[in-house]
Design a protein that fits this description.
Elements lengths: L2 H13 L7 H8 L4 H8 L11 E3 L4 E5 L5 H10 L1 H5 L4 E5 L4 E5 L5 E2 L10 H4 L9 H5 L1 H20 L6 H21 L9 H9 L7 H11 L16 H4 L20 H11 L8 H8 L18 H23 L3 H12 L1 E5 L6 H20 L14 E5 L2 H23 L1 H8 L8 E3 L7 H4 L32 E6 L11 H11 L13 H14 L2 E7 L7 H12 L2 E11 L9 E9 L6 E6 L5 E6 L28 E2 L10 E2 L1 H6 L4 H7 E5 L1 H6 L4 E3 L6 H5 L2 H15 L3 H5 L11 E2 L3 E6 L1 E2 L9 E4 L3 E2 L3 E5 L4 H6 L2 H10 L2 E2 L2 E3 L2 H5 L9 H19 L6 H4 L7 H19 L6 H18 L11 E2 L1
Parallel strand pairs: 2-3, 6-7, 6-9, 7-8, 9-10, 11-13, 17-23
Antiparallel strand pairs: 1-2, 3-4, 4-5, 10-12, 11-12, 13-14, 15-24, 16-18, 17-18, 19-27, 20-22, 20-24, 21-26, 25-26
Helix pairs in contact: 1-2, 1-8, 8-13, 8-14, 9-18, 14-17, 14-18, 15-16, 15-17, 16-17, 17-18, 18-19, 21-22, 22-23, 31-36, 33-35
The protein binds a DNA duplex through strand 12, strand 15, helix 26, helix 29 and strand 21.
Length: 928
DNA sequence: AATCCGACAGGGT
DNA sequence: ACCCTGTCGGATT
């Protein structure tokens, strides 16, 4: 269950008449306990309580219902109960149906609301559902509740008004929801005259069956679009109950006042939502929660998508907030400096070209208001109106609903800041009517002209949007109050790997990259934002920082994207290396992201952030940050089809493309019922990454053409080949191309005498890359790389710390795992010319590593290279190997990985600069 | 003809 | 319900 569902369940429970017998079980059920678990507790089997009327669930909660007036004593008894400690309860809770007291035993936090109000403490109870660590949700239960209630309303309205769910009317529906949210907020914050005016008006004047609710709403909306001076003359006359609503407009209440039809339930949901305290809505996170309401795909994870404030600050602080705060610090009490800073604040534009529901803009705005307030405080002008115009916070968003919400979130943020810093009275005086300017553009950011939406100061650029999309007409008429100002571009644009892009995404990228660079089809969708930002920055001196999938700074994409960004004239000003971007949606694994800041005139020093092992941020300052987000001159590693140094050829393993029919478990192999001789002829051991690393047993059919006829006489084999064929015929082009030789892998490579195997993906926790020596009988699958019949000293290189550092930097990654590549990592690996003596020494080192492993037979590679348990003799063998190899490079051990990487980049640059073509080398690879 | 990638995916605990 | 760690084969070059 997610937070929204739990909220709904406990709210429902609190509304029911109190039933002492039932309460503990209903409470547990509300937090997602299964029927069977409840049944077991009810029967007493799993009830560990030693308190009268108590229910105790292990590792969870001890609940007791007591007679009226004895709640406090009962809680005391629960706290003192030996069973509470023994069962490791996290919470204790006592209630008599009048009041409820509970304690979080881990934190000592207690609550004591009157019974019907306990759902207000959702955040307190969330650890019961295992979502304790989410600070934003715990601190903002109102946002979760609001989301849940609006969602119910939204779903019910669409059910009753199917026409509003159509493409044409979705915009109306979204606009309608935005209006409601505004009204809910306004009635709880004195923006409307009278607390609860909106909800009460609906409740009093509409029919209980909901039949005329839409008419009421239409009238209220109409009122909010009529200035008070015009109220007397408008046609038709406003009814009295609508006349109490102020003129708001601001685009929010202009246009059609149409409202969807309500059912009895929808009306109840509306009132239920209105009864929440919207004053406490937190626009930082409310927007990202609520946007899921209008998104069919996201609705299942309602309230689970939000971008946490600390993560957003990872972008905004280095981009410009740190600098503002430093200037504030520097100003001290100096009048002139304070005024300069205030003026500077007023001319800062923040532009998020993928703004979603406005997270980044809202937080940037709030942070800037905080700084401005500090200035005003030092100058004793605390009631002074803000000089920071909301219209300097611009955004582009593709989806309509989030775009509506973003604008609303900014309006709410502005009001809340005014209340907080200037007081309720001043805040109200300036609030209505809303400005009608529209600074959140709904459109495709990759197709729109950013210069028009966020024009450079002093130029009169008109909207020149691309033919496909229309920019709102009045857009170019909005003046930026940005004369002599600064522009900061930020955000978290969508990521979409090359393979997962739809035609529309591809064509967006094509419009940007085609005719400009090669191989753009392999870029992630997010790359489009970086290119547009780079182009924009060159013209306007803007600074940009985006959250991005880390893959644009790894492997294949680096030479494609960054060569162009650097060519345009931008460089990386600051960066945050890979970290996991928490996404609460269960099963939706968090994605690994980086933050990259680019600028045409980057400020110094360059700042490179990363997370240390304990998860806290560390900052390094350096002269340059390269495209791999490492400190150092801009070196870009291109793929090479043969080794640049004098190394053996490494080949990609054999791809089955078999739907599982060429691959065999041991049981499947035995089930073929082959004779010893047949098995020897047609079946081989096969290794991919997992098999090699974890020592798993796997086999495959391996049929040479000259034995095909014989193989097909064996029924079990013939059937499998037949299945492979049909799988391939139904597959993609790659598969169809080889359908006519379905007894074989895509390729049939193997070693004549020996094979070195390097896994394609392996855990980053290991201190060395796994590499193994296998007999020629073993087949290497596409999930690993192979060196067929290569001298053993090659293995010494792969097993070295130097190589791990190189691979970890220049190859792609799977999240943060090492992902090996022959073309990007092995062929580019810079190695000094090795003497025969060097090779002999390295061969001895490799043998020593193999022997050290052998001593622990049958331990797997995963066990041997577990950083906690790596055996001492193996560690020694690797130390020795590193010692020998590093002496070949620089005559001593390297001090650290930074030094290793610098040397490797240096060698690589030398090797590629000398441009002496290496003769292509063919290894003695078996081929049939 | 040869591989690189995954707003992941699947197994283990 | 996380935590750990690498499948699989299509799309792209």
């Amino acid at each position: 269950m997610n937070a929204v569902e739990i909220e709904a369940a406990i709210s429902d429970l609190a509304l029911l008449p109190f039933d002492g017998q039932e309460f503990p079980f209903a409470f547990l059920a509300a937090f997602g306990n299964k029927e069977t678990a409840i049944k077991r507790l009810r029967s007493g089997n799993n009830n560990l309580s030693d308190v009268p009327g108590g229910v105790l669930q292990r590792n969870n909660i001890h609940i007791a219902v007591c007679k009226a007036g004895s709640v406090s004593e009962t809680l005391k008894a629960l706290r003192a109960s030996p069973a509470t400690a023994k069962a490791k309860a996290k919470f204790i809770l006592a209630t008599d149906g009048q009041t409820l007291e509970a304690e979080d035993l881990a934190t000592g936090e207690t609550i004591a609301p009157v019974y019907p109000d306990f759902p207000n403490y959702l955040g307190f109870f969330l650890p019961l559902a295992g979502i304790a660590t989410i600070k934003e949700i715990k601190d903002n239960p109102v946002d979760v509740r609001a989301t849940g209630r609006l969602n119910k309303l939204y779903v019910e309205l669409l059910r009753e008004n199917p026409d509003w769910a159509t493409e044409e009317r979705r915009a109306d529906m979204n606009h309608f929801m935005a209006r409601l949210i505004f009204c809910f907020f306004a009635e709880d914050t004195d923006i409307f005259n009278g607390e609860g005016l909106f909800t009460q008006t609906i409740e009093q004047w509409s029919e209980r069956d909901g039949s005329n609710t839409h008419q009421l709403l239409a009238e209220i909306f109409r009122a909010m679009n009529i200035k008070s001076g015009d109220r007397g003359i408008c046609e038709p006359r406003l009814p009295n109950w609508a006349n109490g609503f102020p003129y708001v407009n601001g685009g929010l209440f202009s246009g059609s006042t149409d409202a969807p039809r309500f059912t009895r339930m929808a009306r109840t949901y509306l009132i239920h939502a209105g009864n929440l305290n919207w004053k406490e809505i937190n626009p930082d996170i409310f927007g990202s929660m609520i946007q899921a309401v209008a998104d069919d795909e996201e609705r299942g994870a309602l309230g689970m998508h939000y971008t946490s404030v600390p993560n957003i600050l990872k972008v905004l602080n280095p981009l410009f907030l740190d600098d503002l705060r430093a200037q504030l610090e520097d100003a001290g009490q100096n009048e002139r400096k304070l005024l300069n800073l205030r003026k500077r604040l007023a001319h800062i534009r923040v532009f998020d070209p993928a703004c979603g529901s406005g997270n980044f803009l809202v937080i940037a705005y709030k942070q800037m208001r905080e700084i401005e307030f500090e200035i005003n405080r030092r100058r004793n002008e605390t009631h002074r109106g803000s000089d920071i115009p909301l219209t300097n916070f611009r955004g582009i968003e593709l989806r309509e609903f989030p775009a509506e919400i973003a604008r609303l979130a900014l309006i709410i943020a502005e009001y809340q800041c005014d209340v907080r810093y200037r007081g309720q009275k001043d805040a109200l005086a300036d609030f209505l009517p809303l400005s009608k300017e529209n600074w959140i553009i709904c459109g495709n950011a990759l197709r729109l002209d950013w210069l028009s939406i966020c024009p450079p100061t002093g130029t009169g650029v008109k909207v020149t949007a691309d033919d496909l999309f229309q920019t709102p007409l009045d857009q170019s008429e909005i003046d930026f109050e940005n004369e002599g100002g600064e522009t900061y571009i930020c955000g978290n644009p969508p990521y979409l790997g090359s393979r997962d892009q739809k035609d529309e995404h591809k064509s967006d990228l094509k419009a940007l990259f085609d005719k400009r660079i090669q191989n753009w089809k392999s870029l992630d969708y997010v790359a489009g934002w970086f290119l547009k930002a780079a182009d924009y920055s060159i013209k306007t001196q803007a600074f940009t920082a985006f959250v991005t999938t880390n893959s644009i700074c790894q492997g294949l994409q680096v030479p494609i994207l960054w060569t162009e960004i650097f060519r345009v004239g931008c460089s990386i000003e600051f960066a945050h290396t890979s970290f996991r971007w928490a996404n609460l949606a269960s099963h939706n694994a968090g994605v690994t992201v980086a933050i990259v800041g680019i600028a045409a005139q980057p400020r110094n020093p360059r700042r490179l952030f990363s997370l240390d092992t304990s998860g806290s941020t560390v900052e390094r300052q350096c002269m340059h940050i390269n495209a791999y987000l490492a400190s150092g001159e801009s070196v870009i590693i291109d793929k090479a089809s043969h080794p640049l140094s004098a190394l053996s050829e490494m080949t990609f393993g054999n791809t089955p493309i078999d739907g599982g029919y060429l691959l065999l478990s041991r049981d499947e192999r035995d089930a073929l019922g082959l004779t010893q001789e047949q098995q020897h002829r047609f079946v081989r051991r096969i290794l991919g990454s997992a098999e090699f690393i974890r020592g798993l047993e796997r086999y495959c059919l391996w049929i040479n053409d000259q034995h095909l006829a014989e193989a097909l006489t064996i029924d079990a084999i013939a059937q499998r080949v037949h299945h492979v064929r049909s799988v391939r015929l139904n597959g993609g082009k790659t598969a169809r191309d080889i359908a006519e030789r379905s007894h074989q892998f895509q390729r049939m490579f193997f070693g004549l005498n020996s094979t070195l195997i390097v896994p394609g993906v392996s855990s980053e926790s290991r201190p060395y890359l796994p590499v193994g020596y296998e007999t020629s009988e073993t087949v290497i699958s596409n999930l690993a790389f192979a060196l067929y019949d290569a001298p053993l000293w090659n293995m010494a290189l792969i097993a070295s710390r130097l190589h791990l550092v190189w691979i970890g930097t220049v190859c792609g990654k799977l999240e943060t795992r090492y992902r090996y590549s022959n073309t990007l990592g092995w062929n580019t690996f810079p190695v000094p010319l090795l003497t025969e003596q060097n090779k002999a020494d390295l061969t001895a080192c490799a043998e020593a590593i193999l022997l050290a492993r052998e001593a622990h037979f049958p331990a797997t590679i995963a066990e041997l290279y577990d950083p906690e348990k790596m055996p001492a003799n193996l560690r020694h063998a690797h130390e020795r190997n590193d010692e020998v190899l590093e002496r070949i490079y620089i005559g001593r051990r390297f001090k650290n990985d930074t030094e290793r990487l610098e040397k490797l980049f240096e060698l690589y640059t030398q090797m590629t600069a000398s441009a002496v073509a290496q003769p292509p080398k063919k290894s003695s690879r078996g081929k049939k």
